[in-house]
């Protein structure tokens, strides 16, 4: 039985199955902020930062250039929808 599984595209379902057997899963490309919740995904590890940091960098760029109007497009689902909620933005 493997001690760790590294996959290029992690899925929520596979993580739930591996969690039962306490097998760590390393996500090489998954950036979803949802998987940062260690109470639900305690055996999930990532080698790339979560989407929170990408969103924070975008906000920093907007503030740096004093842009006051932006348009954003997102896709349906946990990946596209989680990035559109950033409470306490300085310009909202």
Give structural notes.
It is built from three helices and three strands; from the N terminus they run βαββαα. By secondary structure, the chain is an alpha/beta fold. It has a three-stranded parallel β-sheet, covered by helices on one side. Helix 1 links the parallel strand 1 (5-7) and strand 2. The chain is elongated and about 50 Å long.
Features:
single chain, about 90 residues, alpha/beta, 2 domains, three-stranded parallel sheet, 3 helices, 3 strands, elongated
Specify the helix fraction band: 25-40%
Helix/strand-derived category reads alpha/beta
Q: What topology, given as strand order, has the largest sheet?
A: 1-2-3
Number of helices in the DSSP assignment: 3
Described by the principal axes of the CA atoms, the overall outline is elongated
How many structural units, i.e. domains? 2
Summarize this, please?
The chain is built from 3 helices and 3 strands.
Outline the secondary-structure elements.
Blueprint: E1 5-7, H1 12-20, E2 25-27, E3 44-46, H2 51-64, H3 78-82
Parallel strand pairs: 1-2, 2-3
